[in-house]
Amino acid sequence: MTPTLRPRSDGITNWRNRTIWTGDNLAVMRGMNSNSVDLIYLDPPFNSNRNYSAPIGSEAAGAAFKDTWTLDDVDLAEHGEIADRNPALYKVIDAAGDAHGKGMKSYLIMMGTRLLEMRRLLKDSGSIYLHCDPTAGHYLKLVMDAVFGSGNFVNEIVWRRFGSHNDATRRYGRVHDILLFYSMGDRFTWNRVFEPYDEEYLKKSYRNKDSRGRYTTSPLQARTLSGGGYEWKGIVDIWKFPMERLEALDAEGLIHWPEKGSIPRRKVYLDEAKGVPARDVILDIKPLSTGAKERLGYPTQKPLALLKRIIAASSQPDDVVLDPFCGCATACIAAEQLDRQWVGIDLSPLAAALVLRRAENEIGSLFAIDHRTDIPRRSDLGKLPNYRTHKHTLYGLQEGVCAGCQVHFPFRNLTVDHKTPRSRGGGDHFENLQLLCGACNSAKGDGTMAELLARLNH
Ligand SMILES: C[S@@+](CC[C@H](N)C(=O)[O-])C[C@H]1O[C@@H](n2cnc3c(N)ncnc32)[C@H](O)[C@@H]1O
pLDDT of 341-362, one tens digit each? Predict the structure, then answer.
C-alpha cells in the first residue's frame, strides 16, 4: 500500500548548499521546504542501549550521543501527531511496543515523526536509505512501509560491518548492518554502480597478462548471428566485426592468439572493466580500521566509500542530499566529492567543525559552509494570512472550547496558539493552529501540548 501523496511544492530549498545545522533535526526539518531533496541518507542511533563517545585525543574528541530510550525521551505529542498523520504507523509503533517494550516504542516514536518529515521533504523522484542494524531493523522496515508505502521498498542491503565479533559464544557472530532503501515512487533516480571483482573471480577469469596488464578474453565470433562468414587469417567463421576492425584490433595488440588451437579472442583488460553490478550484500567496503586515514574517532563513523556508492547510485550531479543525523559529516563529504549539493543536521556542534577539517584532509580544498543554529522558516507555503485571521474558523471548529482545559469561553477570551511552537519548527499554517484560553496559553508557553496537558493533570 502507498500512502496518498499530498500536493507538493516547487522543490526550491530554503537553505544554501553546504549547510550544517546544529540542533534537533525534527525542528529543523519542520522548517525546510517540501519536495526539495533528492536523496536522504540517515544513520540514526540504532537503539543499541549504549551511549557513545569519541576517544580523548581523537579529532572528534568531545563528540558523544546517547542511544538508550525511555518514554521520558520522547514528546508524547509526537505520538499523537503520528496518530493524526499516519494511523498505520501509529498501529505499527504500538504493536512494536507490545512485542518489545516501552524502550522500543519510544525509539520508534522518535524515528516515526522524523521519517514523516523526511517523506515530506523528498521529491517524487527521490530515495531514502535508512541505516540500522538487527536490533530494530525489523520494526523499522514496518515503519518505512507505513511511511513510504510497501510498494516503494527497493532493497534491504546488508553491509558487513565487522570482520569478526567476539559476542559469539552462544550465537553466530553479529557482523552486519542493514540499509533499508525506499523510493518515493517509480520515477526514482537510479544509476548502475559497480563493485570490484573478488580475488577468486580475478584469478579464474583474468589469468592472462601482457605488458599492459591482466586481461580476460571475449569471443570475436558471433555464432548466433545468421548470415555467411568470411575468412580472416586462414580461419573461416562468422565474425562479430568487419575484417578492417579485426585488423585494427590485431594491430593494437588487442587480440589474444592462444598457443594451442586456432580461435583468437579479444583481450579485455582489468583496468577497463567496470566490475560487477553492485549487489545487496556489500562485502567489498571494509569497516574503518583503527589506522584508516579518514578515521576521526567519531563514534560510529561510516566509510566514505559506502556513502559514495549510495550517492552515485541514487542521485545525479547537483542533486540535493540530506543527512539529518550527519555525525562527522561523512555523507556531506561524499556528496561534495561527487558534486552534489548537501545539507547535514546533528545535535552535536562538532559536525560543523569536522566537515571543514575533512574537506581539507580528504578533498584538499577549503569552502565556506553555512553553519546554522536557527529554525528555518518555510518559504513554500505561499503568503500565509496572518495566523490571527483564522480565529473565527477555529472558534467554530472548537465550538468555543479551549483545546487545553476544555472549558467554554467567549470569543474574546481565546487566543490563537501554535500547536508545535515556532521555536520547534511549527509553522503558521492552519493545521498547526488552535485556540487556547489565556491561562492555558501562558502555561503552555514555548512547550508542546503534551507538556501543557501533563501540567494541567497535576
Ligand atoms: C550513528 S551517528 C551518525 C554517524 C555518521 N553517519 C558518520 O559517519 O559520522 C548518529 C548521530 O545522530 C546524532 N543525533 C541523534 N539524535 C539526533 C537528533 N534528534 N537530531 C540531530 N542529530 C541527532 C548524534 O549526535 C550522532 O552524531
Answer: 999 999 998 888 888 888 888 7
Q: Where are the alpha helices (DSSP H) in 101-167?
A: 102-121, 137-148
Which pLDDT belongs to residue 8? Answer: 46
Q: Other CB atoms closer than 10 Å to residue 202's CB: what's the count?
A: 15
What is the CA(347)–ligand 1 centre distance, in A? 7
Is residue 65 lining ligand 1, measured as CB closer than 6 Å? yes
Quote the CA–CA distance of 430 and 385 in Å, as a whole number: 10
Query: Which residues of the chain are in CATH 1.10.30.50 domains?
Result: 387-456
Contacts of 420 (CB under 8 A, 6+ apart): 30, 77, 81, 426, 432, 448
Render pLDDT for 190-215 as a digit per residue (tens, 0 to 9): 999 999 998 899 999 999 999 999 99
DSSP run (H or E) holding 40: strand 37-42
Is there an atom of ligand 1 within 6 Å of 129 CB? no
Task: Name the residue with the closest Cα to ligand 1, atom 27.
Answer: 327
Q: Determine the Cα–Cα distance for residues 306 and 172; give it in Å rounded to an integer.
A: 25
Query: 58: left (phi > 0), else alpha (psi -120 to 50), else beta?
Result: beta
Q: Is 325 in the pocket of ligand 1 (CB under 6 A)?
A: yes
CATH homologous superfamily of domain 19-194+277-372?
A: Vaccinia Virus protein VP39 (3.40.50.150)
Taking CA atoms only, the protein residue closest to ligand 1 atom 3 is: 327
Query: Could you tell me the distance, in angstroms and rounded to a whole number, from the CA of residue 134 to the centre of ligand 1?
Result: 18
The x, y and z cell numbers of residue 134, run together, are 538487527
Distance CA 280, CA 157 (A): 5
Question: What is the value of pTM for the model shown?
Answer: 0.84
Q: Is any atom of ligand 1 closer than 6 Å to the C-beta of 301?
A: yes
For residue 448 and ligand 1, the question of a CB distance below 6 A is answered with no
Cross-strand partners of 21? 345, 372
User: Percent helix, strand and coil across the chain, each rounded to 5?
Assistant: 35, 20, 45
The dotted CATH code for 387-456 is 1.10.30.50
